[in-house]
């Protein structure tokens, strides 16, 4: 069985959800519809398009068509000084004995900014999949199934690490194993229970704990 490790991006490889929510609140507020980062937090895991549609429904309006471009411009400015990946990510990747990739609900424009800021662009060159590549983002399984097909892996041999219910739901629908990650700053104390209730087989709060799970699953090089 061909194995594959699939990383989510925001909240797993890099602690960017607080920045994303802040910028979403900024651009929607600047468009004339005041919201707070807390309002955006309720939509973590959704695509940008899904978030802006939710705001249109909330305010019974139509937002400007360039909201994503406005987001990327401000997001790029904030990340221009760089951002460290989640601790242990590079070390974990160096220990893998199986192929790996990134599958995210981010747009390609936003993903390019994030990978450059975290210095992970080379690490994931040719092995990332984003919302621009599929008709449906998470919680649909399309991203994960595309990743498996492209990289020649069996869905049953794929293991996903994701930090939100949308990702867990997508992974289960794709017929893959899913681990919940709760090591980013936006997670509340009940997040692990929510991810397990959604179908994650386990939760972990850091990359060291995740490495232990991968070792038992045969995803790491032997010491």
Which tags fit this structure?
223 residues, DNA polymerase, domain 1, six-stranded parallel sheet, 44% helix
In terms of topology, how is this protein built?
Elements: E1 4-7, H1 17-30, H2 37-41, H3 48-59, H4 67-79, H5 89-95, E2 100-103, H6 108-117, E3 128-129, H7 142-150, E4 158-162, H8 165-173, E5 177-181, H9 191-198, E6 202-204, H10 207-217
Parallel strand pairs: 1-2, 1-4, 2-3, 4-5, 5-6
Helix pairs in contact: 1-4, 4-6
Brief account:
Helices cover 44% and strands 10% of the residues. The chain has 2 domains: 147 residues, Rossmann fold, CATH 3.40.50.1000; 63 residues, Putative phosphatase, domain 2 (DNA polymerase, domain 1), CATH 1.10.150.240.
N-to-C span: 22 Å
CATH topology of the largest domain: Rossmann fold
Strand content: 5-15%
Number of strands: 6
Query: What proportion of the residues is helical, as a percent range?
Result: 40-55%
CATH class of the largest domain: Alpha Beta
Tell me what the CATH architecture of the largest domain is: 3-Layer(aba) Sandwich
Supply the CATH superfamily name of the largest domain: HAD superfamily/HAD-like
Q: How many H/I helical runs?
A: 10
- Helix/strand-derived category reads alpha/beta
Give structural notes.
It contains ten helices and six strands, in the order E-H-H-H-H-H-E-H-E-H-E-H-E-H-E-H. It has 223 residues and is an alpha/beta fold. The chain has two domains: 147 residues, HAD superfamily/HAD-like (Rossmann fold); 63 residues, Putative phosphatase, domain 2 (DNA polymerase, domain 1, Orthogonal Bundle), CATH 1.10.150. The chain has a six-stranded parallel β-sheet with strand order 3-2-1-4-5-6. Strand 2, helix 6 and strand 3 form a beta-alpha-beta unit. The longest helix is centred in the first third of the chain and has 14 residues. The model has no long low-confidence stretch (mean pLDDT 96).
């Amino acid at each position: 069985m061909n194995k594959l490790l699939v990383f989510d991006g925001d909240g797993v490889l890099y602690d960017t959800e607080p920045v994303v929510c802040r910028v979403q609140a900024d651009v929607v507020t600047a468009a004339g519809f005041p919201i707070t980062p807390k309002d955006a937090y309720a939509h973590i895991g959704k695509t940008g398009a899904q978030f802006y549609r939710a705001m249109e429904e909330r305010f019974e309006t139509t937002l400007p068509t360039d909201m994503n471009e406005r987001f990327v411009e401000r997001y790029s400015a904030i990340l221009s000084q760089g951002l460290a990946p989640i601790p242990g990510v590079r070390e974990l990747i160096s220990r893998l004995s199986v192929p790996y990739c990134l599958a995210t609900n981010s747009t390609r424009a936003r993903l390019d900014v994030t990978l450059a800021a975290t210095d992970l662009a080379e690490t994931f060159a040719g092995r990332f999949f984003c919302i621009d590549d599929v008709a449906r983002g998470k919680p649909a399984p399309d991203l994960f199934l595309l990743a498996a097909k492209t990289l020649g892996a069996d869905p049953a041999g794929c293991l996903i690490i994701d930090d939100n219910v949308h990702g867990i739901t997508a992974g289960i629908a794709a017929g893959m194993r899913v681990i919940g990650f709760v090591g980013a700053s936006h997670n509340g104390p009940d997040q692990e229970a929510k991810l397990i209730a959604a179908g994650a087989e386990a939760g972990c709060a850091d990359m060291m704990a995740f490495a232990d799970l991968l070792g038992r699953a045969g995803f790491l090089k032997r010491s």
